[in-house]
Amino acid sequence: MQRPLRILSLEDDPHDTELVQELLETEDVACEMARVDTQAAFLAALDQGGIDLILGDYTLPSFDGLSALKLAMNRYPDVPFIFVSGTLGEEVAIEALKIGATDYVLKTRLSRLVPSVHRALREARERAELKQADEKLRRSEAYLAEAQKLSHTGSFGWDISSGDIYWSRETFRIFEYEPAARVSIEMVIHRIHPQDKSAVQQLLERVSRERTEFDFEHRLLMPDKSVKHVHVVGRPSKEEGGGLEFVGAVTDITERMRADDALRRSEGYLSEAQRLTRCGSWAWNVRTGETFWSREMFRILGCDPDTTKPTLAGFLQRIHPEDRPRIEQRAKIESTQSQGMDAGADYRIVLEDGTIKHLHSVSRPVVNEAGEITEVVGTSRDVTEQHKARVALESAFAEIQALKDQLHNENIALREEIDRSSMFEEIVGESPALQAVLSRVAKVGPTDSTVLITGETGTGKELIARAIHKRSHRAARAFVSVNCAAIPTSLIASELFGHEKGAFTGAMQRRLGRFEWAEGGTIFLDEIGELPPETQIALLRVLQEREFERVGGSKPIQANVRVITATNRDLQVSIEAGAFRSDLYYRLNVFPIEMPPLRERKEDISLLVEYFIDRFANKAGKKIRGINRATLERLKSYTWPGNIRELQNVIERSIIVCETENFTVDESWLSSEPGAGGPAVRPLVKMSASEEKKTIEAALADASGRVSGPSGAAAKLGIPPSTLDSKIRVLKINKHLYKTV
Questions:
Q1: Is 713:559 a contact under the CB 8 Å cutoff?
Q2: Contact status, residue 88 vs residue 101, Cβ threshold 8 Å
Q3: What are phi and psi of 463, to 5 degrees?
Q4: Has residue 264 got a pLDDT over 50?
Q5: Confidence band (pLDDT; 50, 70, 90) for 104?
Q6: Which of 183, 246, 403, 534 has its CA 20 to 30 A from that of 517?
Q7: What is the CA radius of gyration of the chain?
C-alpha cells in the first residue's frame, strides 16, 4: 500500500488548507497536510525532512512565498514547490518559476491543483531517476577509471574517416599527455620510439586499409628519455552511420618487460653459476616420464643439447655399471608416494670416451594437493676433481701419519695421556668417580637447565661450572662467578641485581648487578647456602619468572641468564633448620652434580701431582726431572681434607723450597695419620638432620670442642673444618659446651 503524500502547506488561513486537502482526497490523492504560517515554523518543518510537496501562499502576515521558495530551493531543491495564492501577478509568477517553483495555481481556479500536483510529482520522480542514473554512470566511469589505473590499461577509439581519436584518462597517463589535449595520430607517432616508428606506421596503414584486428607491442620514448613498453590491441567496429571505428586498449607492460629481462638475466646468471660450479639441474615427471636437463647437465653427461633428448633411460645408461642398480632402486623409491623424501647420492658415470666422472646428486620430490608425488627435481654436481683431491689427500695423510707414528713415540704417548686426563680444561683425572661427573657435565652442558654442584671445599666446583658453560650455546657470552659467602649480607642483593641511584646511603649512581653482567651467558653462585632469606626470594623470582628489579627500582628487568650454583653445605639440613627455602632448593636442584672428594679419587693423585709440578715449576723457572717414590706414596695415602686445593698448595709450597731436580714434600706438612680408608664414620650427607646433629655433637665431645686440627672433630668426621663450621651454625650447636679446661 502506497504511503500518503506528506504535504507542507505555507498558509495563514486554516480553512484554505482544509479546502485543499479535501480537494486532493476527492481526487484520490491520499495526503497528510502540515500547515505553517511563519518563517520559523517553515524552517523547522523543512529540518524534520520527509516532505514530498510544498504548497505555498504568496502573501502571509509575517512571511512571503518567494522567501519561502528560496529557502526550500536552498535546502531541498528536489521537493516540488507549487504556489497556491489568491493573487499572483504575472511578473511574480515568472520570477517564482525562475527561482525554481514547479507551478502556480490561483485559489479561484483550484480545479487546476490536482493536475498540477500530479505533474509536479511525476517531474520530481523523473528528476530523481535521472539523478540516480547520472550517479550510477559516474560511479561506473570511476570504477572503470580506477580499474584502468590499477591494471595500467587505457582505452581508445579511432574514427578512420574523421581521424578523431578518443583516449581514456589512463591512456593520457601512459602517453604522458595532458588530458585536455586534442589527440591526433601525429601525437601518437611522436611518442613512438624511433627504432619502432616505421614498423608501427606500416601496421597502422595496413589495419586501416584492411580493417582487421591488430595486436602488437612497441616502445615509447618519453620526454625525459625514459622508455616504456606498451601492448596495443584493437578491433574494427561499425558506427550507426556506416563509418568505421577502431576500439581497443593500450597496456603499459614496462614492469613486465623489466621482470622478463630480469628473469632472462637471472637465468643467464644461473647458467653461468652452474657452469662455474659444475652443477647441473634436472627434473623428472614420474607420471609422464618427461625429463628436463639444464645445459650444464648436458655438459656433465657429455651430451649435445641440440641432438640429445633428455630421458631417464639415457641418464641411467651413463651411470657406472657397479652403481647403476643402486641408482635405479633410488629412482623407484623417489617415485613412490609413501617413500619419497629429500635425499643425496654419490655415484659414477662413464662417458662415451671411457672417462669416469664422480657425481653428487641431491633430489627432492614435488607433491600435489592429494599428497601424491608428481615430479622429482634435483641437482647433480661434478665432484671428480674433489674426489681426486680427496684421494690424494688421504694418501698424503696416510704417509704423514706413518712418519708421525715413528717420531717421538714417548712424547706422543705422554701427550695422549695428558689430553685424556685433561680433556675438560684444567679438570685433571681419569678416575671412575671423576669420569662419572664429566659424563654428567657433557650431558647437561648443551641444555639451559639449572645445575646444583655439591661437594667439599676444594674439590673444583667452579671448574665444573666453567666446563658446563663452555659446552653450552652461551659459551661465547660472559661467565660471571660470585662467591656469596665473600659478600656482606647487606650488600649481596645490590651485588647480584644492581641498585638505582639513591637506593641506600652511598648509592651515588646507578650500578648494574652481576645478573646484568651475565646477560646471555652464565652466572655461577658459589656458596649458595650463605644467601640471606630476602635475597633467596629475589633469586627464586629470577628462576621462576626470568626477571628481577634493581635495589630501589620498580621496573622489572628481563634475565636471560643460565644459573649454576654450588655449595659445600648440606642444604637439606639448612631447610630443616629454616635457613634455606625449600622452594628455592627445588628450583636449583634441577640437575645435581656431586663432586667427589680427593680421597675417593686416589687414581688421580699422580696425574694431579704431575700437572701441578709442571705448572708451578714453569712459573718458578725451575726444572723438576723426577718425583721421589716415597713422596708420591705419602701423597697418595694422605686423606686430603682440603681436597685438590690443599694438594695444589702443598705442591706449590714444595716447588718454592725445592733446591734439587728431584721433587720432595716435607712430611710435617701432612698429617701423621695416613687415613687410608677415608672417614671412619658414615658420611653426614646420608644422615637425617637429627642423626647428623648427634654425630657432630659426639665428635665435638670426643675432640673437646676443637673443630680443626689433626685431632679435631672435622678430621674425625672426615670433612673440611669450614664445612663442619657451617653445619654447626645451621644446626645451632654450641661447640663451647664441649670444651674442657
A1: no
A2: no
A3: -60, -40
A4: yes
A5: confident
A6: 534
A7: 51
Q: How far apart are CA 454 and CA 387, in angstroms?
A: 52
Q: Which residues contact 153 (CB under 8 A, 6 or more apart)?
A: 147, 170, 249, 250, 251, 252
Of 554, 525, 527, 518, residue with least CA distance to 539: 525
CA–CA separation, 438 and 689 (whole Å): 30
> Which residues have a Cβ under 8 Å from the Cβ of 447 and sit 6 or more positions away?
472, 591
- Match 696425574 to its residue by C-alpha cell: 607
Coil, strand or helix: which one is 59? strand
Residue where the block lists cell 578523431: 164
**pLDDT given for residue 408 in this prediction:** 45
The torsion angles phi and psi of 238, rounded to 5 degrees, stand at -80, 135
Cell numbers representing residue 380 in the block? 647433480
Residue written as cell 581508445? 156
**Residues 59, 72: Cα–Cα separation, whole Å:** 16
Alpha carbons 205 and 195: distance in angstroms, whole number: 18
pLDDT confidence bin for 333, thresholds 50/70/90: confident
Instruction: Write the DSSP string, 284-347.
Output: EETTT--EEE-HHHHHHHT--TTT----HHHHHHHB-TTTHHHHHHHHHHHTSTTT---EEEEE
pLDDT-derived band of residue 449, with 50, 70 and 90 as boundaries?
A: very high
Q: Report whether 156 contacts 140 (CB < 8 A).
A: no
Percentage of residues in the chain having pLDDT higher than 70: 92
DSSP assignment of 404-435 equals HHHS-HHHHHHHHHHHHHTSBTTB----HHHH
Q: Which residue has the cell 674426489?
A: 387
Helix (H, G, I), strand (E, B) or coil at 251: strand
Closest alpha carbon to 651 in 675, 676, 622, 686? 622
Using DSSP's 3-state secondary structure scheme, residue 453 falls into strand
Residues present in the chain in total: 741
Cell triple for 43: 524552517
How far apart CA 321 and CA 96 sit, in angstroms, is: 108
What's the average model confidence in pLDDT over 232-252? Answer: 81
SS (H, E, C) 333-369: HHCCCCCCCCEEEEEEEECCCCCEEEEEEEEEEEECC
Q: Are 456 and 597 in contact (CB under 8 A)?
A: yes
Is the pTM higher than 0.70? The answer reads no
| Grid coordinates given for 199 | 614498423
User: CA 670, 674, 678: angle at the middle one, nearest 5?
Assistant: 115
Least trusted range by pLDDT, from 173-177, 419-423, 551-555 = 419-423
Instruction: Determine the 3-state secondary structure of 278 from DSSP.
Output: coil
Q: Do 585 and 546 meet the contact criterion of CB atoms below 8 Å apart?
A: no
Mean pLDDT over 186-198 rounds to 90
How far apart are the C-alpha atoms of 510 and 607, rounded to whole Å?
48
What's the CA dihedral at 632, 637, 643, 647 to 10 degrees?
Answer: -20
